[in-house]
Structure formats: C-alpha cells, structure tokens
Input
Amino acid sequence: MSYQKIISDCKSLFENKTRDYGTAWRILRLPSITDQIFIKAQRIRSIQEKGKQLVDDNIKDEFVGIINYCIIAMIQLDLENSNEMELAWETLEPRYDQAAQETLELLKNKNHDYGEAWREMRISSITDIVLMKLLRVKQIEDNQGQTIVSEGIKANYQDMINYSVFCLIKMQENEVG
Output
C-alpha cells in the first residue's frame, strides 16, 4: 500500500465524516485535539502490550484516526483567527490537501536524509515515537507554543502523520508477506 493510497483512504473517511457530522471538531481547542490523538496512540500501545483487545475497533483504524486528527490540528492552526464553526467540504478539502501535501514533502526530505530507516523499525517502536511526539506537543502547548531550539507543534503533527502512514504500510506488507 502506498503513502498516497493511505492518505486518499484517510481523506475519503474524513470527507464522509464531515458530511455526516459537519465540522463539529472546530469547537476543539488544540490541546483537546492533541489529547484525542493521545487516546488513540495509547490504545494502540495498550493492545500491543496486552496482545489482545476487547473493543472491535482495529489498530489500523486508530492509525487512520491519528492521521486525520493531526490534519484537523494543522487545519485548526491555520484557522486560529477564524470563529467560523461550520465549513463546507468544498472549503475544507483544499485545506486537507494542503496539509497532506506539506507532510508528504517533509517525508520526502526526511527519507532522502534517513534512507527510509523506518522500514527496519518495529511497529511498536513507531507507536512509542508517536507517543513521545505527543508528549512533546503537550509540553509545547503548556508553554503557550514557545520553544527555544525545538521544532514547533506543526512539525510534530506532520511527523505523527508520517509515522502512522509507515505503520499502515508495514501492517499491509505483513498481511501480504
């Protein structure tokens, strides 16, 4: 499964949920979105550690949720000066595409430098890195967005998207292989 296919599937789900629920997520402050992502990542880790789950929602869907909530967070960052609650899909779609494209460009640059090292990583390790990124974002949020030498919140959301896509690719490859 390719990166673009995963993002396309995530976008399709996002569009359908937008058509079902509207943009109710606009009410969420950034720390609330971060906590929603944290819940999903923590559930994945818990299932990985316990080796079983009691709720039917599968881990793949949780990674998709992380991707979409990170894109929501990036859209919220762009709309921080807007009080408009309800956005039509036609207005939202280009914002989704922009966030996804910027994140893909970051991935290309990092893959160049790191040589796709993620392919040799364990899914459980990638999950831990997503959780670490979330703790970093929470700290930055607690510091009112101020950093001294670190990358900002948006870059961490982009990394979480890319790591989640990596996990979905690896899970797909494991099913096929």
Q: What stands out?
A: The longest helix spans residues 89-114. The two ends are 12 Å apart (CA to CA). The chain has a mean pLDDT of 92. The helical segments are 3-21, 30-50, 59-78, 89-114, 123-142, 153-176.
